[in-house]
Amino acid sequence: MNKTISQEFLKGFWEILPPFKLVLGLCPTLAVTTAVENGIGMGLSTTFVLFFSNVIISSIKNLIPKKVRIASYIVVIATFVVIVELVMKAYFFSISQQLGLFINLIVVNCIILGRAEAFASKNPIYLSAADGLGIGLGFTLSLILISSIREILGKGTFLGMQVMWDSFEPFAFMVSAPGAFVCLGLILGIMNLFPKK
Amino acid sequence: MELILLFISAAIINNFVLSYFLGICPFLGVSKKIDAAFSMGLAVIFVMSITSVISWLVNHLILIPFHLEILQYVVFILVIASLVQFVEMVIKKISPPLYRALGIFLPLITTNCAILGLALFISLREYSFIQGLVFGLGASVGFTLALVIMAGIREELETADIPESLKGAGITLIVAGILSLAFMGFAGLI
Prior knowledge:
The complex is a heterodimer of chains A (197) and B (190). Chain A is an all-alpha fold and 197 residues long. Chain A has one domain (5-143). Helix content of chain A is 66%, strand content 2%. Chain A has helices at residues 5-10, 26-32, 36-59, 69-91, 93-99, 101-104, 110-120, 125-155, 177-193, and strands spanning 157-158, 161-162. Chain A has a two-stranded antiparallel ribbon. The longest helix of chain A is centred in the C-terminal third of the chain and has 31 residues, at 125-155. Chain A is globular. Chain B has 190 residues and is mainly α. The A-B interface holds A 23-24, 26-28, 30-31, 70-71, 74-75, 78-79, 81-82, 86, 101, 104-105, 107-110, 113, 176-182, 184-186, 188-190, 192-193 and B 18-25, 28, 70-74, 77-78, 81, 110-113, 116-117, 120-121, 124, 163-167, 169-174, 176-178, 180-181, 184.
């Protein structure tokens, strides 16, 4: 069965939507989602790295010896992470300060390595590109969803603007570490209520 | 005294898993059984202490003198990957029973972001050699502690009556949240 580009692109939005359906890449998901701005920054950085590493790995898949493939993937991924970090520091300094260590830790984000191993190393370039872009954007949307919930409930703001009524008491639990775990756990539970196809 | 405080701070107050969210994947993946969690914890303590030493040496003896700080993660991740491979070979040679006990967990450590995070923290906060080693030990002991506690809770959870849709990752994350809340209570310790 031949899958088309659009199918590969769209599966990242529901079928294997990270981090909910693929329970991977939880560290950045939990750590950066205290504000919507950070969620968007992290999501787009990951999308960039995922897209380009998928394209590169897919185009050199026949040149990489089987035994050292993981190390080779990591070098490719790390190269793009360095690019992202330099660009973020130059143009989006405040977000890069907020995200801090987690930009660097995209290197070991299991989603990217997982897609390289499970998809890009077996499929042609155009399908890998669609896969990378789809999963990356799906991941960005999930981060925006989680960070919206946490920012609105935890600070009463959305992208820094006041959205709740004046007497709203911010629910500080949501922006602290335990809130991240509980929020993600509940969203997972709600998503599991939908029947599996 | 300062070193003891650094150790306690890394192990309990700023626990890598529960307050920095580093190493969540193995935390969720390997916390089903106490035995496995303990083996994984030992492997992490082992690799983290060596990583903190080697990454400090590489950073201060090679990268900084040659102004190559930009290559930090590429170098660190390669150091960690080769270190894990090396540790695996040594353990296989010296102690086959330990090797069998650790099994799949050793290679998995390469993609544990707690290890890379540790190497980056040490260089970011400009720890001295001894401070780096103590920080690494503290962080890995804290990781093991969180992992073993979590495994203990999950063994009990198996007999509990949980809503169908929360089974698996959902309930584990919520429990992790409550555990993290408990660890926040240590915040006033220092």
